[in-house]
Amino acid sequence: MSPSGAGAMHLSSAIKTIVTLIDDRQPGYQRHANNVARLTRMVGLQFDLDPTTLENLRLAALLHDAGSLRLPFSHVGSRWRLPPEERRVWETHPLSSARLVRMLDLPSEVEYAVLGHHERWDGSGYPAGVPGARVPLAARILGVCDNYDEARSGQLEMDSERVTEAAALERLRGEERRRFDPDVVLALGDALGQEREIGALTGVFG
User: Phi/psi class of residue 173: alpha, beta or left (left: φ > 0; alpha: ψ in -120 to 50)?
Assistant: First the structure.
């Protein structure tokens, strides 16, 4: 059951505080999380997801890296270049994110989305290496949108540069195609195309 009234206000305040704490350790996280929340909604609409599921996706997007708060700061700041044994520690952060979601008493769909957003279509992800449709759709959507926005903002690798929308999509369709649900990637491309069309009609994009 969703919280209401004062409970909803306290929950919203708690989530904002968590996002701010993550942003203190990972500058730019708040912007990234909000971008991912917007993208997950756009993709969710392509799948005709109901309003409750869309809201759960939004919450998962905001909290997807909350588990990084439990990791040593050195892991967060240099996560791209960690040695294998420390990289394995970093890869536990979805488990901690899921535990935090449970502590907030959020719906299980939010928990499963944050838990599985680093799993990959070909089974090469973490923390469990679960492949394909065994990963919940919400997690697959979150994973694609997270990766897309990281590519756009230059956060995929240390010293990586920002890329265009077209380049970020082409990466998902090309070199990374085995790792992401192709239906979700297609839906993201369709959603972004519709956004451009609406922007052109309304003058948002000039």
Answer: alpha
Query: What does the pLDDT look like over 107-119, one tens digit per residue?
Result: 999 999 999 999 9
The reported pTM is 0.90
User: Is the CB of residue 56 less than 8 Å from the CB of residue 109?
Assistant: yes
Token pair recorded at residue 86: 């420390």
Name the residue type at position 36: V
pLDDT higher than threshold 70 for residue 92:
yes
Confidence (pLDDT) at 97 = 96
What are the distances in angstroms from CA 194 to CA 50, 148, 191?
Answer: 20, 17, 5
C-alpha–C-alpha distance, residues 206 and 192, integer Å: 16
The whole-angstrom separation of Cα 166 and Cα 65 is: 26
Q: How long is the chain?
A: 206
